[in-house]
Amino acid sequence: MPVPVEVQIDGQPADPERFVMPPLSLSSARADLKPHRFALTIAAADLLALMSDEYEKLVTELKADDQVVDDKDELAAAGYPALSELVTRAELVQLVFGGYLVAELLGKVTWTRKGGIDYWFDAVTECTIDSGQLTFHGSCYSKN
């Protein structure tokens, strides 16, 4: 059963099925595409259920990296909190699910290859938390 998410493009409701994480960077294509702002909202409880395995795997990999490099990120500085704690901290949600695991998250809650594509994800620029709802804000592009 699909996880309920809400997507807005430029403040208007949009179908998550028509929003996609492109397999390649949009760098050279941006000049021919129209920029937009998006907001994708998911319940923290749904994110916990959906992404706990991916988060645990990421933490294991990052801890292994910490053994060989001295440069640690904000997640390491926070002590690699449990996912249930992480979803209460917007800056860490943005780092993990708007950065490290954004492709995995979007792959589970947006385009399922059943229909056409209207918007291509570009970047997450902010994450906000309100009443157990996580909202990822960022940029995306369309052909029109």
Number of strands: 6
Task: Please bin the fraction of helical residues.
Answer: 25-40%
Low-confidence stretches: none
Number of helices: 5
Strand content range = 25-35%
Q: How is the largest sheet built, in terms of strand order? A: 2-1-4-6-5-3
By secondary-structure content and strand pairing, the structural class works out as alpha+beta
Question: What's the N-to-C terminus distance?
Answer: 31 Å
Number of domains: 1
Main beta sheet strand tally, sense and closure: 6 strands, mixed
Using the alpha-carbon principal axes, give the shape. globular
Structure, explained:
Helices cover 35% and strands 29% of the residues. It is α+β, with helices and mostly antiparallel strands and 144 residues long. The chain has one domain. It has a 6-stranded mixed beta sheet with strand order 2-1-4-6-5-3, sandwiched between helices. α4 packs across α5. The protein is globular, with a radius of gyration of 16 Å. The N and C termini lie far apart (31 Å). The model has no long low-confidence stretch (mean pLDDT 91).
In short:
The protein has helices spanning about 45-65, 75, 85, 90-100, 100-110; strands spanning about 5-10, 10-15, 20, 35-45, 120-130, 135-140. By secondary structure, the protein is of the alpha+beta class. The protein is globular and about 45 Å long.
Task: Please render the helix and strand layout as text.
Layout: E1 5-9, E2 12-14, E3 19-20, E4 34-43, H1 44-66, H2 74-77, H3 83-86, H4 90-100, H5 102-109, E5 119-130, E6 133-142
Parallel strand pairs: 3-5
Antiparallel strand pairs: 1-2, 1-4, 4-6, 5-6
Helix pairs in contact: 4-5
